[in-house]
Amino acid sequence: MKLSIYNTEGKETSKSVSLSKDIFGIEPNDHAIYLDVKHYLAAQRQGTHKSKERSDVAGSRRKIRKQKGSGAARVGDIKNPLFRGGGRVFGPRPRNYDFKLNKKVKVLARKSAFSKLAIDKNIIVLEDFAMDAPSTKGYANILANLDQANNKTLLVLADSNKNILLSSRNLKRSKVVNVSSLTTYDLMNANKIMFVESSIKEIEKNYKK
Questions:
Q1: Which domains does the chain have, with CATH numbers?
Q2: pTM above 0.85, yes or no
């Protein structure tokens, strides 16, 4: 698949790029995408939730009243979950939500996401560019030139660029990542993916067998 390369003014240049069929042209595997997105979201959970159970509640362990003869139901100590201030039954405990996912599944998920974007024509390739200083207005103008001001966009760079990152940070619907930190969740969470020319080469280098 060949795509034209645009400049930051939104104009089509004379250059084009060919996307590898091994990365951008496979049959998308929806289940692999689901597993990788689930794996990413699970890893974001802190898992620090905790409620007090019977052993954690302050109070005496003395039996409140004798077992029989009161006419009421039998009860134990004041930590009984039925009482106000008692311990919770089977409450949440700190845990790690992360789970193992094979590297081959992750690679398949990433390639499937790339291929979905290519099929849906949601990929834009830009010339390599740089910003002399952080400028939110400057980055917003680039998005407007590409007619993406109202879309949720993801810009993929070959290497981290502090000025571009800071320029995009205050725009709620925009995100900038480099190839090494790109995730399947990022790819599926955006309406349009913008690759700079050098990032396409970096992706092919990382994912091509």
A1: 2-45+101-207 (3.40.1370.10), 52-96 (no CATH)
A2: no
